[in-house]
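Z., the sequence and structure:
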Amino acid sequence: MAGIIYPGTFDPITLGHVDLVRRASKLFDRIIIAVAQSDKKNPLFSLEDRIELCRQCFSDIPGMEYVSFKGLTIDLADRLDCHTFLRGVRAVSDYEYELQLARMNRAMNPKVETLFLTPGEGLSHVSSSLLREVASMGGDVSRFVPPHVLEALNGKFN
């Protein structure tokens, strides 16, 4: 079974993330959403909440798995016996960073491959950190997150 790992903090998951996973689900039988603990980023949502918000987005897609992790994604790949990563690239700056990361991962583990996808139309400016900031100031982010995520964000800021 061909599988892919989509690592990230998903704090919160956005329609850009959802778009990438839905498109990847047409290419892979197994998609693992790997939610990083990411204590350095001081996440808005707990690890458990982030996993649940992701799970609710993809209940209709077979072959979805959800794990949490801390540390290197290449170590996670070995533990899960899945050596392909999905990464989203919104701009040239993302590509430069992601290319460095992909090369480092491959240098540390030659079995690792990275698949880059660009977000769908109208989603290239969406990032979790920007959405958190806008939502914290009362801005409308409903066009950029699934309804259940909007509800969770409103619960944090209202």
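The beta strands are 3-8, 30-36, 64-69, 84-88, 113-117. The longest helix spans residues 92-108.

Let me know what you think.
H.
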